[in-house]
Design brief:
Layout (H helix, E strand, L loop, with lengths): L6 E3 L4 E5 L2 E5 L4 H13 L8 E5 L4 E5 L4 E2 L11 H18 L20 E3 L8 E4 L2 E4 L6 E3 L1 H12 L14 H15 L4 H24 L3 H8 L2 H14 L1 H4 L2
C-alpha cells in the first residue's frame, strides 16, 4: 500500500499519493486516456481510476487512488494463486467489453500506435505490477499504453505476464511447464478464448515488440529503458520467447 504523501517510482513513471488521489506525469495522450476512463466508468467498469484533473501547464494528471497490494516482482504469493489468475482474466474481459463501443475520434492521441483490427482499446500492459488487490478484488491502473487494437493482442501479453510464460532462468517467473500449461488454459478459458495457440503467438509477438522498443529507446538515451537493458531485461525476454516457441506444443496441449 502506498502511504499518503509517499512518492513512488514505478518502472517508467514517478507518482505521488495525496489522500485519495494520485498525481502523475501527463502527456499528449492523457486527454484520450481520460476520455477512455470516463467511458468505461459510464459502462459500469469500476475497477480503474477515475480521472479528476489535467494540468497541462504543470504536466500532471490527477486520478483517484486505487488501494491494495500491487504485484511487484518477485510476485507475492497471493498473486501466484489460481484464484487471482482467474480474477485477472475476468477483469481483462470486463475491461475489453467496456471499451468495445468506445467511439474513436480524429483528435485521439495514443502513446502506442492504433492498429487493426481495432476491436477494443487495449490496456497495453495488463500485468500484475499494474494491478492492485484489495480484499480479494483486483483493480487495474496505469493506462498510459492504452491504444486501439485486438482483444487477442492484449490477451497474449496479459497471459505472458500472469501465467507467467517465462523461461526457468527468468527470476520473475515461477511454475513448471505443466503448471504453465494448466494456468494458460485456465486464463484463456476464463477470458473466453479457446484458441490457446493464437494467444501464445500473440504473446511471442508482443514480447518481441517490447524488446525492440526497449532497445530502440535505450539507444536514443531513454534513461529508464537504458537501465532495463543494462539490467538484462531484454535478454530475459528473448529467453522467454524461445521458451514459448520451444514448448508451444506442450503449452497448448
Amino acid at each position: 500500500m502506498v502511504e499518503d504523501g509517499e512518492v513512488v517510482r514505478g518502472g517508467l513513471t514517478t507518482v505521488r499519493r495525496i489522500g485519495s488521489t494520485v498525481i502523475r506525469p501527463s502527456g499528449n495522450h492523457t486527454p484520450s486516456v481520460h476520455r477512455l476512463l470516463q467511458h468505461i466508468e459510464s459502462n459500469g467498469f469500476v475497477h480503474a481510476p477515475s480521472p479528476l484533473a489535467l494540468n497541462a501547464e504543470a504536466g500532471t494528471e490527477t486520478l483517484t487512488f486505487m488501494p491494495g497490494q500491487v504485484g511487484h516482482y518477485p510476485l507475492p504469493a497471493v498473486f501466484r494463486t489460481n484464484h487471482t489468475l482467474v480474477s485477472a482474466a475476468r477483469l481483462l474481459r470486463e475491461y475489453h467489453d467496456a471499451t468495445a463501443d468506445f467511439a474513436a475520434s480524429d483528435t485521439d492521441v495514443w502513446l502506442l500506435p492504433s492498429r487493426v483490427p481495432a476491436e477494443v482499446i487495449c490496456h497495453g500492459d495488463f500485468a500484475p505490477y499494474n494491478c492492485a488487490l484489495a480484499d480479494g478484488v483486483l483493480s487495474v491502473f496505469d493506462f498510459d499504453t492504452a491504444h486501439p487494437w485486438s482483444r487477442l493482442a492484449d490477451l497474449g501479453y496479459a497471459a505472458y505476464r500472469w501465467v507467467p510464460l517465462t523461461d526457468p532462468t527468468n527470476r520473475d517467473g515461477f511454475g513448471t511447464l505443466d503448471e504453465q500449461r494448466q494456468r494458460l488454459g485456465l486464463f484463456c478459458e476464463t477470458y473466453g478464448e479457446q484458441d490457446r495457440l493464437a494467444v501464445l503467438d500473440a504473446a511471442i509477438g508482443r514480447v518481441g515488440e517490447l524488446v525492440d522498443l526497449m532497445r530502440r529507446l535505450a539507444g536514443n538515451g531513454h534513461e529508464a529503458f537504458a537501465g532495463h537493458v543494462a539490467d538484462g531485461h531484454d535478454t530475459r525476454y528473448l529467453a522467454d520467447i524461445e521458451h514459448m516457441r520451444a514448448n508451444s506444443v506442450d503449452l497448448i496441449r
